[in-house]
Design brief:
Oligomer: single chain
Mean pLDDT: 97
Shape: elongated
Helix content: 40-55%
Bound molecules: nicotinamide-adenine-dinucleotide
Number of domains: 2
CATH class of the largest domain: Alpha Beta
Order of helices and strands: EHEHEHEHEHEEHEHEHHHHHH
Number of strands: 9
Distance between the termini: 53 Å
CATH superfamily of the largest domain: NAD(P)-binding Rossmann-like Domain
CATH topology of the largest domain: Rossmann fold
Low-confidence stretches: none
Amino acid sequence: LPKKMGFIGLGLMGLPMATNLVKKTSDDTQLYVYDVVQDSIDKLVKEGGGKVQACGSSKEVADKSDIILSMVPEGSHVRSVYLTPDTGVLASDIQSKILIDMSTIDTGTSLAVRDACAEKHPKARFYDAPVSGGVIGADKGTLTFMMGCAENDTNVDLLRKLLGLMGGNLFACGGASLGLTAKLCNNYCSSLIAIATSEAMNIGMASGMDPRVLANIFHTSTAQSAICDDWNPVPGLCPEAPASRGYKGGFKVQLMAKDVGLAVDSAERVGVKLALGEAGLGVYREACVDERCKDLDSRVVYRLLGGKEDW
Ligand code: NAD
């Protein structure tokens, strides 16, 4: 692996991911980091001992590193990190460096940044590589990575080695932006399963069923899912699930609303008909502005749908 690595965006996900890079790379590796929030940089510099160096811009990170990773919230932030004149990554003379964006954003923005990179620096390579597994996975280094490249890409071994320091399962999704496509398909599916599970549990409980019995039946029948087994939206069914601690922690409802919206946009672009997309998106958008739900784990849609919490 290159000894000079860059990391841009040290938020809820980025900070623990970068921390794993610090822990798992050789002693002579240097990590050059930048975030618009100085506090986040200071935290990592403090934790990382001599291995972490603060930078004043994304360009400075790119100047000093041979491989550059980014983990920021939305497409607009990715544009800002890479395309801002004078201070963005592409303002640096990156030559044949490798750029990896791990943010969950729309495929159009990702391809636009990739094209801008190819035009300005023909030997450099830009990859999308979004993740699944949340803050816990980021912390434990067990994230799933969905890499936007072919299995026989020239850099695939390097990507596997590097991203493997932060994750367990690594998938080459076939080509540019297909990592993002995979991520959006997964979150679209799991977001709708959470709504369906909430509604079905509501019907059963309102009819007089014990939710534990119903969840066990789902588990051994065709309604079985990770949402039912590990992330059940009904408080008290899965002791480890966010629902059982007031929906705190987990995957914020705002992030799910963003991802479902991006999946619905993707469907429109590729001409796929959705029966549930707009309805599901409406539920998550409503939860984002509901005082009882906003900022909480996305499975809080159970609460929005009137689910019984003190059964
Ligand atoms: P976050 O808001 O906690 O962190 C984002 C960080 O990026 C912040 O520290 C922010 O200051 C920084 N940032 C924003 N614009 C910047 C810029 N122009 N230059 C440098 N730094 C900038 O978000 P997060 O939860 O870490 O999520 C990051 C991405 O990962 C999102 O796309 C999200 O959808 C995805 N994701 C999140 C989770 C999760 O559970 N939180 C799980 C999987 C994927």
